[in-house]
Design goal:
single chain, alpha+beta, three-stranded antiparallel beta sheet, 20% strand
Length: 357
């Protein structure tokens, strides 16, 4: 690992020189490329410097132990030595994680699909709650949210809502949210105060461009129709709603939220591209079992990943055994504690996979 870190440090120093070169500064695209690479290497180099500092402190402390005679001074040095040993071990673990290959999709925007599962109207209402939770989390991170498609119920829930979240590092923070989210609470319609259990599925897809996946236009069947709202209420009087059918697989995407047929078609294409890309990724994971071990949420969305228990103010993520009694704050978008714990867990799993291969 030390040799690899020295190589990273050398590259970081070379980049510093390049970024101060007037010729590079004048070439905006080159400058941005080098600046991005430098930003990616900065946390590694910073932690490596910490490690080197701890090594130096340990060497100095061991030297003092060999030469010092005063018992009180020896005791102090031994205490410092123990603390620095712990700090060094932590720096080494951090560096192992920082050196893991980056997921090239981490900086992408995402398309989130939330669908009501078992539980009828209560599941639809919880779909709305989850949409609000992710919207609040996006707001905290200064990300942008745009609804691509939605299917409202008469009581204000979502049978389905598909939305785009754009901003810095969105996929890296939300990629572990895909799966079945279970809610346990007393519905407003429950007269006897009984707790009901409902389920909602969440899919998180990295947004893709045409360069990521090629779609033959002849493989897409396009239908237009008049949009309608809850209870059949007319949303507009033109055929603006769009239904795309990807003929090779029968995959269907509909969008009717915009009054413009052109905008609905663009949004539907965005969702279709993301879903097809996700299917390609799942195929690749299935074919490469060793890689699949290092990937999370490789497509099995039937797995129950999290339970939201309202009477106990409890949220439990079953994948990592994390339980937090702060449901209200989490539903208001305070997701960082959950997201950080998931990221650390799966990075550690990837680290184990690397060491085994």
């Amino acid at each position: 690992m030390f040799d690899k870190l020295k190589t990273v440090e050398k590259r970081y120093n070379d980049l510093n020189e390049l970024l101060s070169d007037p010729k590079i500064i004048a070439q905006q695209s080159e400058f941005q490329k080098f600046a991005k690479e430098q930003a990616e290497l900065t946390p590694i180099v910073k932690r490596f410097k910490d490690l080197q500092k701890f090594d130096q402190q340990l060497e100095e402390s061991k030297k003092i132990l060999q030469e010092e005679q005063d018992p009180e001074m020896l005791e102090m040095v031994e205490e410092d030595l123990a603390k620095v040993e712990i700090q060094k071990q932590k720096a080494e673990e951090d560096l192992k994680i920082l050196l893991l290959p980056k997921d090239p999709r981490d900086e992408r925007n995402v398309i989130v699909e939330i669908r009501a599962g078992t539980g009828g109207e209560e599941a639809a209402l919880f779909s709305n709650d989850l949409f609000r939770m992710y919207s609040r989390y996006a707001e905290e991170n200064k990300w942008q949210v745009e609804i691509l498609s939605s299917n409202l119920t008469g009581k204000g829930g979502f049978k389905e809502v598909i939305f785009n979240i754009s901003g810095k590092g969105v996929y890296s923070r939300l990629k572990y949210e895909g799966g079945t989210h279970r809610v346990q609470r007393v519905p407003d319609t429950e007269s006897q105060g009984r707790i009901h259990t409902s389920a909602v599925t969440v899919a998180v897809l990295p947004e893709v461009e045409d360069v990521d996946i090629k779609i033959n236009p002849s493989d897409i069947k396009i239908d237009v129709y008049r949009a309608s709202g809850p209870g059949g209420q007319s949303v507009n009087t033109t055929d603006s709603a769009v239904r795309l059918t990807y003929v090779p697989t029968g995959m269907i995407v509909t969008c009717q939220d915009e009054k413009s047929q052109h905008k609905n078609r663009d949004k539907a294409m965005k969702v279709l591209r993301a879903r097809l890309y996700d299917e390609e990724q799942k195929k690749m994971h299935d074919e490469q079992a060793s890689e699949r071990k290092q990937q999370v949420g490789s497509g099995d969305r039937s797995e129950r990943i999290r339970t939201y228990n309202f009477p106990q103010e409890r949220v439990t993520d079953h994948r990592i055994g994390l339980t937090l009694h702060k449901l209200s704050a989490i539903m208001e978008g305070s997701l960082d504690e959950v997201v950080d714990a998931l990221s650390l867990h799966f990075q550690s799993e990837a680290l184990k996979g690397n060491s085994e291969n």
